[in-house]
Design brief:
By secondary structure, the protein is of the alpha+beta class. It is built from eleven helices and twelve strands.
């Protein structure tokens, strides 16, 4: 049996996750949620004195902001939008008949003003833009959000609905690059404390199509994205559990986020894949959290 599937089966058998019947969509146990909660507290203990504010976003964002982000252009294969029934009484009867006959009933579904959030930092940028010019110190925001990616898989680390904890830095080129480099070091320190094997490597986002492959190559060449990877599903293909991203002034221009001098703001973010990090901990320290190394338990539970 494939190693990836066997790890997923172990998670089901141990009651850490519960199968929903759809790949990548799982119920989480209390133990799993406790590990995520403890990790979030652990992550927030790093850099907590630097943040200017904190926000938690719902799993949906305005469709107009989703379009402004460019996500649909670059990653249409991963995107999800919210559709709802918008028909008449007659359409409702047709809907019921289609469902009763086991036929396609989605014809009367139309898109709403909501898209499923693909990345935790996206809803932040229009909020900052509406406030006007940034102060000289810029913005340094801690975020958390459920995110969606349309990539069903039997790899337990590749969920369709998952949470991202992020720190986002918005300001000058110097401020954002320094932020990213600082967090590359902090991320590795965190993993050493949690006794998780890891490496940091240059990466690129999964841009779609031939033009997307060129964009990915350019992203790697400019070293705009780094990932901290941990062997979870297999040693041969480690899983990206943290990312360190410098967006230059792309989002500043897209949403008209202005620095104090009126120029487009630069942005950078560090993202923690909460489910992936929890799975890495279970993979390397076992399914019984009470048997985890004392140093790891001390870091997470105090």
């Amino acid at each position: 049996m494939d190693a990836q599937v066997s790890f997923l089966d172990q998670l089901f058998n141990q009651g850490i996750l519960h199968d929903s019947g759809v790949d990548g969509l799982y119920a989480r146990s209390a133990a799993f949620e406790d590990v995520i909660s403890r990790f979030e507290e652990f992550a927030l203990s790093f850099g907590q004195d630097e943040i200017s504010e904190a926000m938690v976003f719902p799993p949906g964002m305005p469709l107009t902001d989703f379009e402004t982000s460019g996500y649909m252009k670059n990653f249409p294969q991963l995107a999800g939008t919210v559709h709802a029934f918008c028909g008449s009484d007659h359409d409702h009867m047709g809907l019921i008949q289609c469902m009763a006959a086991g036929e396609d009933w989605s014809e009367s579904q139309k898109k709403t003003d909501v898209a499923l959030t693909p990345a935790a930092c996206y809803p932040l940028y229009p909020i900052l833009a509406r406030r006007g010019r940034l102060p000289e110190a810029g913005a340094y925001v801690a975020l958390q959000s459920y995110c969606f990616r349309n990539e069903p898989s039997k790899e337990p680390t590749r969920m369709q609905m998952f949470r991202q904890r992020e720190y986002v830095r918005v300001g000058t080129e110097e401020q954002t690059i320094e932020f990213r480099e600082t967090w590359k070091q902090r991320g590795q320190e965190m993993m050493r404390i949690l006794e998780l094997p890891h490496e940091v490597e240059v990466a690129n986002d999964p841009f779609f199509g031939r033009v997307g492959r060129m964009m990915g190559a350019s992203q790697r060449e400019q070293e705009l994205k780094f990932e901290l990877v941990i062997p979870v599903n297999s040693g041969a293909n480690p899983t990206a559990c943290m990312s360190f991203n410098y967006h230059m002034d792309n989002f500043g221009k897209a949403w008209n986020i202005q620095q104090a001098d009126g120029s487009p703001a630069h942005t950078a973010c560090v993202g923690f894949g909460l489910e992936r990090l929890a799975l890495a901990l279970f993979r390397h320290h076992g399914f019984d959290v009470n048997a985890w190394p004392n140093s790891v338990r001390s870091a997470l539970w105090g």
